[in-house]
């Protein structure tokens, strides 16, 4: 378990939980680009752990720290048990998902629909906090459907703060639970950053991170300069990991340079890839997260093509990654 003050510091910049994207391999790549940022798992539902016994969902590598486990669910006791399992697995933080737009899955209610029941969210948080020593945090929206965010968000935050939650990330748009797909729900409801900024004024001691539509480190720095405590980046960090993360340690955390280049991150991935392959894994399970590493650089298309065409083949190994890397033109030579 990493010290709480270190996690709080790491939360100045985090990579968002993203199902099917921020799996353990993706997180190792991100960690090689930024040693300071906070990384989130994909959402794991509490029922999958507690009723389903799917403990493999908690697997991660030690180099991922600081790393937070995101849970989905709405049953306080089940979430408490799942949080305990997360703590036992060594996670640094447990985060409750109150933002995912799918309101029901087989395993029950979770996600953004819980914005309608802040008292239940508070009970869930209280139960999780009682169950673990590590920090419990919340990721939420500004509201759902026809709710008025101006009323709903402060009420929601007040209720979770009242049960001891000290850190929240707000995806600064509503989720429209009727009529939009989860993907549309990440783009169509308008962003309201000002509302999130005002929440910092209302709850000055809450550690507040903003999420949604942030596509550059400059934009992230602006939010921090304006007084927010943290910035969480999702899709941009996934699609252009080097652009978002390689300068983060220096620019966001004040660590002396030099920045880790995309090439260095690839080199650092090679032993991890070797280990994955020798334990029976496939190359493309890792390289699928690396396709955007050189986005915008000469040779990026070749990099993507070599990996996309070759990495699924049964005998594909680290030499394919090295060959793809040789297609990249270094800035000095470009
Ligand atoms: C493929 C994908 C999967 C996601 N899965 C989750 C999830 O499991 N839990 C969650 O809280 N948010 C999830 N999100 C939402 C992101 O965490 C984030 O809130 C959203 O993408 C907005 O941030 P961005 O504009 O920086 O991408 C997902 C987003 C994407 C693109």
TrEMBL record:
GO molecular function list? flavin adenine dinucleotide binding; FMN binding; tRNA binding; tRNA-dihydrouridine20 synthase activity; tRNA-dihydrouridine20a synthase activity
Q: Which residues form the DUS-like FMN-binding domain?
A: 15-327
**Residues that bind FMN:** 17-19, 70, 139, 171, 211-213, 234-235
PROSITE patterns per UniProt: UPF0034
Query: What is any Pfam family matched here?
Result: Dus
What are the residue positions of the site described as Interacts with tRNA? Answer: 97, 183, 186, 301, 304
| Entries under Gene3D superfamilies matching the protein | 1.20.120.1460, Aldolase class I (3.20.20.70)
Q: Which UniProt keywords apply?
A: Flavoprotein, FMN, NADP, Nucleotide-binding, Oxidoreductase, RNA-binding, tRNA processing, tRNA-binding
Q: Which residues form the active site?
A: 100
Q: What is its EC number?
A: 1.3.1.91
Q: What class of enzyme is it?
A: oxidoreductase
Q: Does the keyword Nucleotide-binding apply?
A: yes
Q: Which NCBIfam families match?
A: PRK11815.1 (NF008774), yjbN (TIGR00742)
Record protein name field:
tRNA-dihydrouridine(20/20a) synthase
Q: Which species is listed as the source? A: Roseovarius albus
């Amino acid at each position: 378990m990493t010290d709480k003050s270190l996690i709080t510091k790491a939360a100045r910049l985090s990579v968002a939980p993203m199902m099917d994207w921020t799996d353990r391999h993706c997180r190792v790549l991100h960690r090689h680009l930024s040693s300071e940022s906070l990384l989130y798992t994909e959402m794991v539902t509490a029922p999958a752990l507690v009723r389903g016994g799917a403990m493999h969902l908690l697997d991660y590598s030690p180099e991922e720290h600081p790393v937070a486990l995101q849970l989905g669910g709405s049953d306080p006791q089940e979430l408490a048990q799942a949080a305990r399992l997360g703590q036992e697995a060594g996670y640094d933080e447990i985060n409750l998902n109150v933002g995912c737009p799918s309101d029901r899955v087989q395993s029950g209610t979770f996600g953004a629909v819980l914005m309608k029941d802040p008292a239940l969210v508070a009970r869930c948080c209280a139960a999780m906090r009682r169950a673990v020593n590590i920090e419990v945090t919340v990721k939420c929206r500004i509201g759902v459907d026809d709710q008025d965010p101006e009323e709903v968000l402060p009420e929601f935050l007040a209720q979770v703060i009242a049960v001891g939650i000290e850190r929240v990330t707000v995806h600064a748009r509503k989720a429209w639970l009727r009529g939009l797909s989860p993907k549309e729900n990440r783009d169509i409801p308008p962003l309201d950053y000002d509302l999130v900024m005002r929440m910092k004024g209302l709850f000055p001691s809450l550690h507040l991170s903003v999420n949604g539509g942030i596509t550059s480190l400059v934009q992230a720095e602006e939010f921090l300069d304006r007084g927010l405590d943290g910035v969480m980046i999702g899709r941009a960090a996934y699609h252009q990991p080097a652009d978002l993360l390689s300068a983060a340690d220096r620019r966001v955390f004040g660590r002396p340079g030099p920045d880790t280049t995309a090439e260095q991150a690839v080199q650092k991935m090679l032993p991890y890839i070797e280990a994955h392959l020798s334990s029976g894994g496939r190359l493309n399970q890792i390289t699928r997260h690396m396709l955007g590493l050189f986005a915008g650089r000469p040779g990026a298309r070749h990099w993507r093509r070599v990996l996309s065409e070759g990495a699924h083949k049964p005998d594909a190994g680290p030499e394919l990654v090295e060959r793809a890397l040789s297609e990249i033109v270094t800035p000095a030579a470009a």
